[in-house]
Amino acid sequence: MHVKALSRIVFALAVTCFTASAAKADSLFTGSQAGQCCFDVNLHQVDANNMQVTVSLTNGAQYFVASGSGNHPGFAFNLANDPSISIASISSPWTLSSFNASSVNTNGPSMGSFDYFINNPGPGASQHNDGPLVFTIYSAAGINYSDFVANSNGYYFAADIMNAAGQTGLSGISDPGTTSSVPEPSSIALLGTGLLSAAGIVRRRLTQS
């Protein structure tokens, strides 16, 4: 390959790395699920004290609903050591008053108990919606991906949904499945610095030749 062309390629890669350095690592829960399949949970680290949560219906699930007469939380989750938290920026039609910072023991089917839950608008499927549910968790003690843990029944999350056949009930994620992330900004920046240095060396040698 011509040295000048190689120099341009290396320089372009370096610029790309620096452009991507603003990205934050995300963790995506798409593990094995039980009940009225299916949903994904994406965690986005905003900063040391804030985690954005996005819950999206997948694989034939139609709506978030408020089904049954028992404990069917719209969306429920756990955090290690049950810290004091608050939420903000919740997406419509949910409201901040939908959030409950208390435990709930689920049924329909039972997924065990969860530390926190959000009620779907309801009753029944009268205010069904296809989401996604988006909100931000704030913890003064700090929050990161490893704080999201399974309950004693082995479930990380539960959601009350309607599937394509019109059946309603809880669905739960029983393991994190594939946790995918982009490189941390510091790692990308370091790679970009190395590539820029390489580009400079190639250009100097080109000039000297």
Give me the secondary-structure topology.
Blueprint: H1 3-20, E1 26-29, E2 33-35, E3 39-47, E4 50-57, E5 61-66, E6 75-77, E7 86-88, E8 99-100, E9 104-105, E10 113-114, E11 116-118, E12 124-129, E13 133-138, E14 157-163, E15 168-173, H2 185-208
Antiparallel strand pairs: 1-3, 2-15, 3-4, 4-13, 5-12, 5-14, 6-11, 6-14, 7-13, 8-11, 9-10, 14-15
In summary, what is this structure?
By secondary structure, the protein is an alpha+beta fold. It has helices spanning 3-20, 185-208; strands at 26-29, 33-35, 39-47, 50-57, 61-66, 75-77, 86-88, 99-100, 104-105, 113-114, 116-118, 124-129, 133-138, 157-163, 168-173. Helix 1 runs antiparallel to helix 2 (185-208).
Give the tags:
2 domains, 33% strand, alpha+beta, 209 residues, 2 helices, 8-stranded antiparallel beta sheet
* Rounded Rg: 22 Å
Low-pLDDT stretches: 13-23, 187-192
User: Structural class of the secondary structure composition?
Assistant: alpha+beta
Q: How many domains in all?
A: 2
Share of helix among residues?
Answer: 10-25%
Anisotropy-based shape: globular
Number of helices: 2
Average per-residue pLDDT, rounded, comes to 80
What is the percentage of strand-forming residues?
25-35%
| SSE arrangement, N to C | HEEEEEEEEEEEEEEEH
- Could you give a short account of the major beta sheet? 8 strands, antiparallel
Cα distance spanning the termini: 16 Å
How many beta strands in the DSSP annotation? 15
Q: Oligomeric status of the shown chains?
A: single chain
